[in-house]
Amino acid sequence: MSKVYDWFEERLEIQAIVDDITSKYVPPHVNIFYCLGGITLTCFLVQVATGFAMTFYYRPTVTEAFASVQYIMTEANLGWLIRSVHRWSASMMVLMMILHVFRVYLTGGFKKPRELTWITGVVLAVLTVSFGVTGYSLPWDQIGYWAVKIVTGVPEAIPVIGSSLVELLRGSSSVGQSTLTRFYSLHTFVLPLLTAVFMLMHFLMIRKQGISGPL
Q: Which of 29, 47, 189, 197 could form a disulfide with 214 if both were Cys (CB 3.0 to 4.6 A apart)?
């Protein structure tokens, strides 16, 4: 094992990376409230793992979606646990994100030189809410269906382009298979990819600029 490690160490300088991570200065004012961003990240990773597991059973069609969710809950091995963890960690992620935004705002974390960190954080907050909206529809039960219908109907109030935006979101003039397909694609591919990119940017900037001041 030591030879394998030495081979990687020679090429990647792993120890230097580890030393840089472990020797980073943490200000004395840091407390539990400064962990909210990390908890949000943990919830996201749980979401990715449990969501990926459910893709093996979920069927994104209007005729089979609800039945496939029922199968996950009643027939698939530990399916009930995986879906429950996915659901509750989603709620926890939203809650931790809201608390994190409040903490950053109250400690002035949006001020110079951390403006870009704040902007990426706001984008991540929007993406988090988008996860909730798209994921809520996937069981395609009555609650999910009407939630989609209401949410996608909101842009219709916008002058000139409102109707076009509604059709873009729904995939047609009414809620149906095209809508579910789009929401499923957003929830399982587009949003996770965007979230991963903005999280990387967010944490790299925090790493570079350090933690904001105390309350």
A: 29
Question: Is 202 annotated for ligand binding?
Answer: yes
- Residue 108 falls inside a structural domain: yes
Sign of CA dihedral 124, 42, 48, 78: negative
pTM comes to: 0.89
Question: 29 labelled as ligand-binding?
Answer: no
In a domain, 15, yes or no: no
Cβ-count burial of 206 within 10 angstroms (0-12 exposed, 13-18 middle, 19+ buried)? Answer: middle
Q: Is residue 92 part of a domain?
A: yes
Low-confidence ranges of the chain (pLDDT < 70): 215
Q: How many domains, the chain?
A: 1
Q: Which CATH number goes with the domain that contains 78?
A: 1.20.810.10
- 64 within some domain: yes
Q: Residue 57 and residue 182: Cα distance in Å, rounded?
A: 18
43 is in an annotated binding site: no
